[in-house]
Amino acid sequence: MKKKSLLFLFLSLYLNSQTNIQENYFSNPLDIELILNGNFGEPRPSHFHSGLDFKTKFKEGLNVYSSAEGYVSRISIKHGGFGKALYISHPNGYTTVYAHLKNFNEEIESYIKKLQYKKQSYQIEHYLKENILKVKKNKIIGKSGNTGSSFGPHLHFEIRKTLNQKALNPKLFNFEIKDSRRPNISSVFVYKIDSLNNFKTPAKLKLEKINDSLYISDTLKAKGKIGFGITGFDRQDLALNKNGIYSYTAFYNNKKNIEFKFDEFFFQESSKIKTLIDYNYYIKNKVRIIKLFKDKGNDLSIYSQNHSGYIDIKDIKSEYMIQVSDILGNKTKIKIPILKESFELKFPIDKNIISSNKKINNNLNYDFNFENSRIQIPKNTFLNDINLNIQPYKDSIKIENPYVPLFKNIKINFLNKRNTKGDYLAYKNFDGVESFASSKLDDKNFFIVKTKSLGTYYIKSDSISPLIKAYNFKNGDWMSKKEFLKFKILDKESGIKSYEVKINGKWILFEYEYKKDELFYKFDSYFTNKKENKIEITVEDMVGNKTKKSYTFFKN
User: Fold this and answer.
1) Any alpha helices (H) in 238-324, and if so which ranges?
2) Is the pTM of this model over 0.85?
């Protein structure tokens, strides 16, 4: 019986790993031609892009349609992230996601508003059973928008496996997106790899464009173990956006050396983007080099074979070829002739080396205790052994090495000696940008923060309460012809933590658009008009400073 259970589990996992693509099952979620603003899998600052971004004619309010029949399985509303997002699960085992929406259709809007009013919260994460909100294919489910961490109107669209939420490339499902353009190559880099598979700053190769599909580099004189990296982008027809490249393949002497493409990935893998790019180079130059070799800690599932991608030059003459392509087969190739000799290329000298005083063994846990602070670093926080500069001071703690990524949270405790109202723990990164870190205190009066950010941590004080200002009316105005109530709310120090608005003593659902510092409400059935109406608005910042204001407006 136990063997049968194990076999069943194995088969379930195996079948779950297989992606059965059903072309033409899903329809266009918009009623306009699909033009890309962002590609699946393209590198973002801390993750892989998990869907396609569709342009919406630079405006909000376009109809968004369900791509297939199913039911609403999740509704998410956040100030940041996806903003207003809808998840629809389908009978074929997939879930589609529609994000940054302006609003939902009347049925969905009515359903979620009841929950928001019940919880008295704008932000909500709600999962639904199958029989509550069913949708048909091509049914309007909402309007396109710009909510959440979106900095221009568009529709973010995803397809996931319902069972494990694995993100799939929607292009695999045969959406009609015009694309006759080949990917563009910006630069190719070569790395010297030492016996421990470590590398330093790469050297840039000189490329000659032969035609639209082929580049050839100058002959590379090299010996020993080397690796390559590439920068580039892809453009689809009808748009100039520089989007990510779908597929990368490299050959050494006509034999496939490494291959990876963005068909699917697990969300747990997303932070490992820092192993695919040359993270050190990115921090210093703000350019993402895609490495054509697998570095330490890179266990991404995007690779088609278990090759390292390194090459060891043994032949007097050899050739390395890189091929990048989009999902429709438009290709660009780069040929690199190699001559086995000492390197002629001059590798840049790294001038940004920071001083360090702590050697961190990545296989060990660390607990540094100082007079006013404590730092706890769990094992496997980094990819390998690294050096840190840790400097405790009376009023701050410095933990520096901006060129290494963290994959686990470290914990920092800092004593709040002053114990003044409004004190909080602030953070400053290597570029000098300051931000709020934490206002949470433990029972020993230490500020606590769990973070993946190295830098300087210190105590600041915020004694200034948030700003509240009526935006589209004055106290005592008649509002009969106006659809919205709008306020500007702002806190320049620690930031906005929460807000509450009541009209005539009743909690009212106001939306917060942090990108505009705007709080707004569209009059609806939840508003009880008393002709002379009183607004009470309270805004609290991250350290507990509050501002309360009252307004009166009239409405027929």
Assistant:
1) 273-276, 279-285
2) yes
